[in-house]
Design a protein that fits this description.
single chain; mainly alpha; 82% helix; flat
Length: 215
């Protein structure tokens, strides 16, 4: 029963992760743009990140999960899993956008200048020169956010879906036996720990050529 509920967690996590990676990058690019005409977009992105990082994730889930159905407007989603995923995506995109922005700004300006000097446009230099370096540098912080997201998927349980934590909570309340909660904890660990080791290995591989180049 708990494993079946955890499968819902995994599907929700993967879906939200894809949205967060894309939307977070879009917000980061909006915040790092230097075009004067895009100042309103840059301001909107800054307000979004400040607001979403300032509100606790559980409150965002509660507001969207119960607030949107309460509007009773046609066309709006009412599925608690979908609403919970939207709330998590909005909240975590703000954090991931700041991680992306830090990575982009950590790339030395000479990299952009060199790309422009060989004939690349601003968009091409960002895509082919700046972003690849930025993403490699921020892989560990991104992993931390994704591990947090994997755990915070359990917050969707307040909307009613029978995910792993909710199922374990029901069994614990029925039998006064908290072993189901331990089982749910082990399932989360079984996902997050291997993911952390994989990224550590990727980081180690990426550092080997750099050390060789310095020598």
């Amino acid at each position: 029963e708990i494993l079946r509920g955890f499968w819902l967690d995994v599907k929700l996590f993967v879906s939200v992760e894809i949205v967060v990676l894309i939307f977070g990058l879009v917000v980061a690019l909006c915040r790092t743009t230097r075009a004067a005409a895009l100042f309103p977009v840059r301001l909107l992105a800054a307000v979004y990140t400040d607001v979403m990082r300032g509100i606790p994730t559980i409150l965002v889930v509660y507001l969207i999960g119960f607030g949107i159905p309460a509007l009773a407007l046609p066309g709006l989603p009412t599925d608690p899993v979908v609403l919970g995923g939207i709330a998590l995506a909005l909240s975590y995109s703000a954090y991931v956008a700041e991680v992306y922005r830090a990575g982009i700004e950590s790339v030395h300006p000479s990299q952009r200048s060199a790309a422009l000097a060989i004939g690349l446009t601003n968009a091409q230099s960002m895509r082919h020169v700046i972003l690849p370096q930025a993403v490699r540098r921020v892989a560990p912080p991104l992993l931390n956010d994704f591990i947090s997201l994997q755990k915070d998927v359990a917050l969707v349980s307040i909307l009613g879906p029978l995910e792993a934590f909710r199922v374990a909570q029901i069994f614990a309340a029925q039998d006064f036996n908290y072993t189901p909660l331990i089982a749910a904890s082990l399932l989360y660990i079984a996902v997050t720990v291997p993911l952390a080791r994989i990224v550590d290995r990727m980081q180690a591989r990426g550092q080997v050529p750099a050390r060789g180049a310095v020598r």
